[in-house]
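I can't quite decide. Please look over this sequence plus structure tokens:

:::
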Amino acid sequence: MKNKQSYLTKGSFALLLFVILGYIVKFYPEQLTGFDSSIQTAVRGDLPAGLTAFFKIVTSTIDPIGIIIWVSAVFLFFLYKKWKAEAALLAGNLVLHGILIKLIKLVYQRPRPAIEHLVTEGGYSFPSGHTMAVTLVAGSLIIIAAQRIQQQTIKRLVQGGLLLYILTIALSRVYLGVHYPTDVIASMLLGLAILNIEFPFYDQLRFQWRFKSKQK
């Protein structure tokens, strides 16, 4: 693949930023207090009821049951279309998220913010599981849309909508009080790292399967 090194470089850089941020969270969390607090104050405001209801609904789409349901539906659609590599990318990233997020949270063991939580969440705070999940899953769909949607206007609308979805989920986790801003930033960095590192290998597999008529 012509741009393989470029993707690996970008992925490695995002991973390095995640590691640096994680190091600060683990050993010098007080250094992040001012940054996190200022963003929390700006995002949460006076917690209007309408906005709270909106963010609760949005974030529920990435709750374990919610994301499994809609990702399974998209996965089955891809199999129906015989887009096997795309189906593997989508499902594989959801499974990968489930494994990684549990291990990483145990490493950092960051307590959740000591502010009012508008939804019930257990476990540790760093990184944000919801944000990492949506970055990996919606990010996979952005990649697939780039390859499968021919009409440029529709492609851009779909990709823009998916990007907005990622950012809205990230914002919702801060607004609802269950994550620090640095939790969601770290999650997006890790998600971007994974997507960039795995893309050249996924794209090569997709080409090989199409060449061998294993998929459309």
